[in-house]
Amino acid sequence: MERANDRFIFRAKTIESALRERLYACEFLLQSGAGLFAGSEEVTRTQWRTYVTALQIDQHYPGVQGLGFAKIILPSEKQTHIRQIREEGFPNYEIQPAGERPEYTSILFLEPFDWRNQRAFGYDMFSEPTRKEAMEMARDTGSAALSGKVSLLQETEKDVQAGFLMYLPVYRNGEAPATPEQRREALTGYIYSPFRMNDFMQGLLIEKLEYVELQIFDGDKEALLYPSGSMDALSHYSHVHFATYQSILEFAGRHWLLEFKSSPYFEETIDPGQVNSLLLLGIIISLLLFAGVWSLTKSRDQALSLANMTLDLEKANLELRREIEERKQAEEKILHLASFPRLNPNPVIELDSAGEISFLNPATERMFPGLGTMGQSHPLLHDSMEMIADLRQGKKQGGIITESTIDEATFELHISHVQDVNRIRIYVVDITKRKQGEDELREKELLLSESQRLGHIGSFLFNMTGPIQWSDELYRIYGVSPDTFIPTVESFLSMIHPDDRTSMEIWIAACVAGKKPNALDFRINMPDGTIRFIRGDGEAVLDEHNRFLYLAGTGQDITESKQAEQTTIDERNFSNTLIASQPDIFYVLDPTGRFIRWNDKLKDMLGYSDSQIAATNALDIIHEADRLVVAQKTQETFEQGTATNVARLVTKTGIRDFILTATRVDTAKGPIAIGVGTDITERKQAEEELQRYSAELERKNQELQEALAKVKQLTGMLPICASCKKIRDDKGYWSGVETYVSKHTDAVFSHGLCPECEKKGNEDLENLIRENK
After folding, report:
1. Collapsing DSSP states into helix, strand and coil, what is residue 259?
2. Which end of the chain is more exposed for a tag (fewer CB within 10 A), N or C?
3. Please, is 267 exposed, middle or buried when counting C-beta atoms within 10 Å of its C-beta (0-12, 13-18, 19+)?
4. Where are the alpha helices (DSSP H) in 187-229?
């Protein structure tokens, strides 16, 4: 009986936890909407419709009637506001109810904008006391607030349900000010959702609600929010229930009274069925995945693969846990067949008052053929006989559960004293596979924890019906302790850097909507004040109807790789600056002669685009006559370490002469050649011109020397006639000066008058003319 009550309490607490997590999920839905306003200067009606449509509220958030925004409107702004909305295509728009009030909170956006939600368009929620109370609480605290029980405007005369609303304030600049007074001043509106309570509870662990009846009251039993089942209140209270449980659910300023009572179905029995073969399959898959994870931790370069495998492994663990839980439930339900021991598929044994075997059902005789003969000495019973005696003699009360191991099989014995017939009844359950699964799970979770520690990767599981589960490594990554930190959506988002929260909210919303967004890199604020970089990855698991079940994901500390990445970027920027500042062409070649890097000088000189250079071999830009030498020098560079040569390059302006110098550098990916080229075309042209000038100068000098050599023949004492000015040569002949010089040199004479002779001739001519007159 005690175990049955424990099972009932467990199921009740599971529903309570599921209800709490569903409320948290809805709060997150509002936070994501507030994030859209915080990240935008203005949100239009079209943008809001697109955003809410992408969330697929009708599929993933049961009971949420819509997601809306109510704007704060002052009396002085009322008429302008109404005119603007009418100009948007709503000619009959009014703020309802009519009347003058200190401020209005008109519902401006509400999606999906169907016929139900159109009934609330323009409604001033501040005009209704219950709604106003919750809105004021949200405004002054800066947090989400639940309203009390209300009747929604969306309700009609059919299928009327109790309702409630959740509000989240929106402030200017997206941040909540420090004091309530400042928050009231900065308030611009509210993100909110209306809920129909019966719809909200739909699908919330229905399989467990079959075991319990649940009623939810807003504060006290006068305000019934939700009754489960078709039983009316009077018959519900008149029925004597096997077990009851009450709890108070505190959330967003409200206190809901949860009252659980056991249902008739709780006493029913079902066949246990066969062991689900998925258990073994899950173990095999999990071990194979761990083997992959273990090998991947040897290389930090494969961190992404490690994260993916960790995610798969966590999913396999979840399936394994479910299988073990289902097995336990099946074993418990077998015990309900106690009144029909012969029909029980598991062994049932009865002992008389003396401790002798008085009954064995067919399953016992089949599984333990020697038990009837061996009696108490049989390995199945031997170790439990002392406790059985204490139970029979009244030294122990209630029931006893023990284990017995025979060969490699483990059995669980449920022992009870049937007092009306003074007999001991023993129910035997083969728990071998369950024990193996539990042992495998413990070992595998230890291995998973170790692999996550080595790879700095933690994992998490998040669903709408249970708490968020973090692995030990995820607690270590975030610098918090599981003893003091409770992972919820709210507490998780509070750790994220403010500039990254909106991105995270959008990412989670996309996952919950069944999409598969890329991994998200974000920053977290550590408790010690430092900032770490985390890479989050996850995948939503959906049921056969494409409804969200849970989000399984990983978080990896990538701070070191981010720092290394930034260092690489800084170094590359530095090298790019150096390369860009080079006055000469710069290039990097692989061993095949392909360009790996280059500067703009080379690109501009060739007139190529980057893609054209990347597809070009270095020899293609060398003059055909020089290619063989350049190819040899390139090979020499890779073999000996360095080489220099002069070659002609084919550029967009023609053939240019360059001195090319290259040096080999060994990298992790293999050797490369780093080279520079200096344009020497003008210098070479100047050298050639200098050579031509030197040759011409040499020729002129030679001619001069020859002329001087001849002139030297006239040196010394020459006899000349004082009267006729003739010169005597070495042989005694007398010649005129012109004849003598022409004979002994290469000189050529031109004939004319010097100025004095010309003057004297002119005077003589004038005298002659006068005399003739």
Report:
1. strand
2. C
3. exposed
4. 197-201, 206-209
**Helices 2-38 and 498-512 sit at what angle, rounded to 10 degrees?**
120
Are 278-325+451-562 and 582-679 the same fold in CATH? yes
Residues 6+ positions from 528 with CB-CB distance below 8 Å: 479
**CA distances (Å), origin 214, targets 204, 219, 267:** 12, 15, 17
Residue 328 CA to residue 326 CA, distance in Å, equals: 5
Provide the pLDDT for residue 671. 93
List pLDDT tens digits, range 64-77: 889 999 999 999 99
Q: Give the CA radius of gyration of the chain.
A: 50
Q: Which residues contact 261 (CB under 8 A, 6 or more apart)?
A: 212, 213, 214, 236, 239, 241, 243, 244
Please state, in angstroms and rounded to a whole number, the distance separating the CA atoms of residues 138 and 130.
13
Q: Which of 446, 543, 532 is nearest to 495 (CA)?
A: 532
Query: Would you give the end-to-end CA distance of the chain in angstroms?
Result: 178
- Identify residue 330 by its one-letter amino acid code: A
CATH class of 278-325+451-562: alpha beta
Three-state secondary structure call for residue 484: coil
Please give the Cα distance from 717 to 410 (Å, whole number): 146
d(CA 314, CA 322): 12
Confidence of residue 310 (pLDDT cuts 50, 70, 90): low
Lowest pLDDT segment from 314-323, 416-425, 474-483, 692-701: 314-323
3 state SS of 588:
strand
Query: What CATH number matches the domain at 582-679, 3.30.450.20, 1.25.40.10, 2.60.40.420, 3.40.50.280?
Result: 3.30.450.20
The CA distance from 566 to 540, in Å, is: 32
Mean pLDDT of the chain: 79
Length of the chain, in residues: 773
What is the SS3 assignment for 50?
helix
C-alpha dihedral (591, 597, 602, 607), degrees to nearest 10: 100
Residue 29's nearest CA partner among 505, 548, 552, 537 is 505
Which among 392, 415, 437 has a CA at the least distance from the CA of 286? 437
pLDDT at 708 over 70: no
List % helix, strand, coil for the chain (3-state, nearest 5): 45, 25, 30
Residue 555 in 3-state DSSP? strand
Dmax (CA) of the chain: 196
Q: Quick check: 453 and 293 in contact, CB under 8 A? A: no
Q: Are 316 and 391 in contact (CB under 8 A)?
A: no
Question: Residue 647 forms beta bridges with which residues?
Answer: 658
Q: Are 95 and 122 in contact (CB under 8 A)?
A: yes
Q: CB-based burial of residue 265 (10 Å sphere; 0-12 exposed, 13-18 middle, 19+ buried)?
A: exposed
Tokens of 442: 């413990």
Task: State the pTM of this model.
Answer: 0.40
Angle at 3 between CA 331 and CA 246, to 5 degrees: 125
Check residues 62 and 669 and name the one with the higher pLDDT.
Answer: 669
| Closest by Cα among 460, 458, 487, 482 to 21 | 487
Candidate CATH numbers 3.80.30.20, 3.30.450.350, 3.40.50.410, 3.40.50.300; the one for domain 2-201: 3.30.450.350
CB of 552 closer than 8 Å to CB of 461: yes
Q: Is 408 exposed, middle or buried (0-12, 13-18, 19+ CB in 10 A)?
A: exposed
Token reading at 320 = 């394994």
Q: Angle CA(262)–CA(266)–CA(267) in degrees, nearest 5?
A: 115
What is the Cα 628 distance to its own chain's centre? 52
The helix (run of H) or strand (run of E) holding residue 521 is strand 520-525
